[in-house]
Each structure stands twice: as C-alpha cells, then as structure tokens.
C-alpha cells in the first residue's frame, strides 16, 4: 500500500498533523488551478471538514475534484477525518461522507491539528491497516 494523501486549508491544521506523523504524504493543492498529484498506489486520505450548520460542504471542493477521477478513487483504501468538536454531530463529517460515497472505512477522527495521542494512534492504526491490506492482497493473488 502506498502512503498518505491529504488536504489542508490555509489554517494548516491537517498539514501539522501529517507533518508530525513523519510518514510519506502527498498534498492535494489548495488552489483549483494547481496540478493535482498523480496517484499510482493505494492510499489513505486525510481530510478536514468544512460544513455549514447543516452539514453541507463537509468535503472540501478540492478533495471532491481529486476523488472524481475514477482511477484515483479506485486506489482509496480508507479515510481519516479532522474537524472541530464544537460542531457536535457534524464533527469530522467529511470522513463519514467520503466513507459512504467511496465505500471505504473511516479509520479515525481527530480534532483541529490533533494531539500527540492522536499522532500515536494514527501511526499504529495505519501500520495495522497496511498489514491487513497486504494480507488481503496476498490472499487474492494466491
């Protein structure tokens, strides 16, 4: 399985979390006109949530454009979502939306830029998830 792909707005919260993970990661550009990275290996997406009070707009438009490419979407294996607990039931809603629309597991939720504990849990969870994915691949190739 490949690495991480993430989107981070100007606030940089998601970028700070990804930086602390210390894992290979590719950033989806903030500006619509910037080139989108070509993804060729399975990946986990880390995405913040930007929703109005009703949940509309939870997934950033840049992420929607990125996942609208069928070849890229086919490589998505899971999603980790960020958000702000002040929004109650809408906390990390982007993960629920992406999970449901792309039929992949929601692996973890974190608040804002995450904590040291979040970083530890995400690293450990990704290691387990990658091992499980590799086991699945070995079984299908046998």
UniProtKB/TrEMBL annotation:
As recorded in UniProt, coiled-coil segments are none
Family the UniProt entry places it in: Belongs to the NrdI family.
A molecular function (GO) term: FMN binding
Role summary: Probably involved in ribonucleotide reductase function.
Species assigned in the record: Lutimaribacter pacificus
SUPFAM superfamilies to which the protein is assigned, alphabetical: Flavoproteins
Q: List the Gene3D superfamilies hit by this protein, alphabetically.
A: 3.40.50.360
Q: What is this protein called?
A: Protein NrdI
């Amino acid at each position: 399985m490949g690495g991480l792909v993430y989107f981070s707005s100007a606030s940089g919260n998601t970028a700070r979390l990804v930086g602390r993970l210390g894992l290979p990661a590719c950033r989806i550009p903030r500006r619509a006109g910037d080139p989108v990275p070509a993804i060729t290996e399975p990946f986990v997406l880390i995405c913040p949530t930007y929703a109005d009070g009703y949940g509309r707009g939870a997934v950033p438009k840049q992420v929607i454009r990125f996942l609208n490419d069928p070849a890229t979407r086919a490589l998505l294996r899971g999603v980790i979502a960020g958000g702000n607990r002040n929004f109650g039931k809408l906390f990390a809603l982007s993960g629920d939306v992406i999970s449901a629309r792309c039929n992949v597991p929601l692996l973890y939720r974190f608040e804002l830029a995450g904590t040291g504990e979040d970083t530890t849990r995400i690293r450990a969870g990704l290691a387990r998830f990658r091992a499980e994915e590799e086991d699945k691949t070995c079984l299908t190739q046998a």
